[in-house]
């Protein structure tokens, strides 16, 4: 009988230990989530304060010009024939880019409507929307990073 009581107490201690461990993990996960969200919110608010300044930094890596001007210089440097038509679709909005539209060209030679790439960039995306090649290094960590816990 005494041995059964001791066995029940041992099982109860194990169950309580596991239960307290799970509760502790949940509380630590919540605290970590709150801290990360606060940090991300501060970074987000900081990055939204000066969009004009941020866009000026984008000019260095993705200059603005018209599609017509870009196409005439690029077609010649790539050695393409006159038969190539130069029809482009913006991969962000999926609309055709007209010759008179302002575009931004990335180092990977992908072009996008100026407004589309600016919205993409201001959303803390620092890679090409089409090929995902990095075109800009952020000074602050992106606000959409995640910590995975297993």
UniProtKB/TrEMBL annotation:
GO terms under biological process: protein ubiquitination
Domain RING-type: 90-132
Listed PANTHER family: FINGER DOMAIN PROTEIN, PUTATIVE (AFU_ORTHOLOGUE AFUA_3G12190)-RELATED (PTHR45969:SF69), RING ZINC FINGER PROTEIN-RELATED (PTHR45969)
Origin species: Penicillium canescens
Transmembrane segments: 12-36
Pfam families for this protein: zf-RING_2
PROSITE patterns linked to this entry: ZF_RING_2
Keywords per UniProt: Membrane, Metal-binding, Transmembrane, Transmembrane helix, Zinc, Zinc-finger
Statement: the UniProt record of this protein carries the keyword Membrane: yes
Residue ranges that the Swiss-Prot or TrEMBL entry lists as coiled coil: none
SMART domains noted in UniProt: RING
Protein name as catalogued: Zinc finger RING-type
GO terms of molecular function: ubiquitin protein ligase activity; zinc ion binding
């Amino acid at each position: 009988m005494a041995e059964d009581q001791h066995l029940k107490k041992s099982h109860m201690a194990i169950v309580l230990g596991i239960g307290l461990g799970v509760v502790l993990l949940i509380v630590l996960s919540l605290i970590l989530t709150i801290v990360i969200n606060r940090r991300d919110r501060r970074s987000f608010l900081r990055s939204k304060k000066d969009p004009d300044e941020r866009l000026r930094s984008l000019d260095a890596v993705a200059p603005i010009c018209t599609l017509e001007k870009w196409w005439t210089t690029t077609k010649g440097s790539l050695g393409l024939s006159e038969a190539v038509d130069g029809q482009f679709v913006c991969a962000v909005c999926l609309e055709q880019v007209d010759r008179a539209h302002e575009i931004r060209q990335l180092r990977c030679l992908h072009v996008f409507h100026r407004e589309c790439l600016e919205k993409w960039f201001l959303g803390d995306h620092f890679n090409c929307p089409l090929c995902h090649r990095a075109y800009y290094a952020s000074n602050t960590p992106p606000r959409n990073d995640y910590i995975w816990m297993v």
